[in-house]
């Protein structure tokens, strides 16, 4: 019988932390961009572009929240302070 690597080890939490931090920074960038597109520049876009930008706004806010949850889980697993 072969032993497998446990799922909850520090290396996996470290990978999760790096991935979550990357997704968090990406989602903040997309969120700021879509807010700028949706509101100050709305008069320059067609209705279909506005609908797409508002959908992107919802998706980027969801990604931001999920990335933060992943970051909190990883920091807790590494026994670091969860900020």
Walk me through the topology.
Blueprint lengths: L9 H29 L8 H31 L6
Structure description:
- Keywords: Membrane, Transmembrane, Transmembrane helix.
- The chain crosses the membrane at residues 21-42, 48-69.
- There is one protein chain.
- The chain is an all-alpha fold.
- It has one domain (10-77).
- The protein contains two helices and no strands.
- What structural class is derived from the secondary structure elements? mainly alpha
β content, as a range? under 5%
Describe the global form.
Answer: elongated
The tally of beta strands, per DSSP, is: 0
Q: Report low-confidence residues grouped into runs of 5 or more.
A: none
Question: For the report, how would you describe the main beta sheet?
Answer: none
Mean pLDDT: 92
H and E string? HH
